Give the backbone structure.
Amino acid sequence: MFGRCPDCGAWNSLQEVKLPPKTRLGLAAEPIAPTVQTQTAITLAEVNHYAQPRLPSGYSELDRVLGGGLVPGSLVLIGGEPGIGKSTLLLAVADKLAQSQTVLYVCAEESVQQVKMRAQRLGISPATTTPLYLLSEIDLDIILGQLQILQPAVVVIDSIQSLYLNSLSSAPGSVSQVRECTAILMRFAKKENITLLIVGHVTKEGTLAGPKVLEHLVDTVLYFEGDRFASHRLLRSVKNRFGATQEVGVFEMVDAGLREISNPSALFLGSREEPTPGTATIVSCEGTRPLVVELQALVSPTSYASPRRTATGIETNRFLQILAVLEKRLGIPLSKLDAYVAAAGGLHVSEPAVDLGVALAVAASFKDRILDPATVFIGEVGLGGQIRAVSQLEARLREAAKLGFQRAMIPKTNLGQDYGLTIVPVATVQEAIRSLPTIGKLI
Ligand SMILES: Nc1ncnc2c1ncn2[C@@H]1O[C@H](COP(=O)(O)OP(=O)(O)OP(=O)(O)O)[C@@H](O)[C@H]1O
Ligand SMILES: [Mg+2]
C-alpha cells in the first residue's frame, strides 16, 4: 500500500477500489448471459432520425459556444473554480428553458431558499405556470426517483461533486463517486432523452475530483473562467461533439447576474486615450472568434543575479523564446534586464500569432517608445527571427478594421487579397522592427 501517489506525488490521495475478479485472460469472471438478446444491429439507413431543433439557452454567447444552442438529450459539463458564477449562469438558463418545457434544478449544495434568493437577485420572477422545479438533495437514488415522477426535459445538477451513491462507500466528491454518479445520470438521461447540464468544481489543490475525470463521458465540456478581481467571465468549450472547440463566450458579472458582452474586443483594448511605451495591439483567434487585445511589456535593468521574467495571460515559454530571439537576432541585451508582459483584461492568449506583438512591445519598452496605436501586429516568430504565416488572417483583419484600426503588420507569406487596411508585410522580426517609424533607427 502506498502512502504517496507514485504518479503525481500527492500524499494520502490513493483510494481502495474493489474490482470484480478477473479470469486469466483479464476478462470479467462473471459470464454475460449469451442467450438473452436485447439489441440487434441495424444499418445506418434504418436509423430513424428526428431532427430535433436546438434549444436556445437565453444567452446567445452560450449558444455560440455550444455550437448553436443546446442539443436535446445531450450532456453538458460546466467546470469552473469556486465562486466564478456557475450557479448564476445555470439558474438563468434553467429559467429561460422552463418557459417552454419542464426543468428540474438539483441544488445539491444549497437550500431552495438560497436559490430563491439568487433568483430574486437575477430578477427571475417565474410565473406559476413556469415549470421550473427545485430539488435540494444529494442522494442520487432520490434524485432519480424524482426524475421518474417529474419527467423533466432538462435537468441541472449543481454540482456533481456533492452527489453520492449509497452503494459506494467513498465520500461524495471522490473520484469513484463522481464518475459513477455521472455514468448513472448519463445512462438515465440518454434513455429518457433528457438534456443534462452538470456543474463540476475545479480546485487549485486538486483535492476534489475535478471534471477532468468526466471529460470523456460527456458530450460537451465548457470551462467558465475569469479573473476573480475582474468582472468579466469567459466561457470556453474544450470538447464539443456538436460544434467547434475553443469557442469563447464573454460575460460580465454584475449585480443582476451575468450580462453578455457581444463586442468583447472593446474590453481587452484597455484605455486608448494615452498610448504608453511598450504597448502593442494584437489579434488573437479564440476558436473562430478574433479578439483584439492590448499587450503591455516592460523591461527594466535587473537588480537580481538572474533577471525576472513574468508573463500574465501569455505562455511563459513562448515569452522566453521571443526574448531569446530578440537578444540573439537584434542584440537587445535582455539578459541584463527584467522583462514583464501582460494581456489586458485578464485574458489568456495562447496562440503563436501573438508573438510579433510581444516582440515589438518588448522592443518598444526597451527604447521607451510608443508603437502606433492604430496598428495591429499579427505573426508567429520563429527561432531564426522569421515571421511565420498565421491562420484565419482575414477574420482577424476584419475585426481590427471594424474597431477602427488603420494598419496591420502581417507575415509576408500571408499576403493575399485586399483587406481594407493598410498592410505592412514583414518577413523577419528584424524587418518588422526596422519598419517602425519610432524605433526602427534606434536598434
Ligand atoms: N450581490 C451581488 N452583486 C454582484 N455580484 C454578486 C453578488 N452576489 C454574488 N455575486 C457574484 O456571484 C459570484 C457567485 O456566483 P455563483 O454562486 O453562481 O458561483 P458558483 O460558481 O456557483 O460558486 P460555487 O462554486 O460556490 O457554487 C460571486 O463570486 C460574485 O462574483
Ligand atoms: Mg454554485
Notes: The radius of gyration is 26 Å. Residues 86-87, 109, 158 surround magnesium ion (ligand 2) (CB under 6 Å).
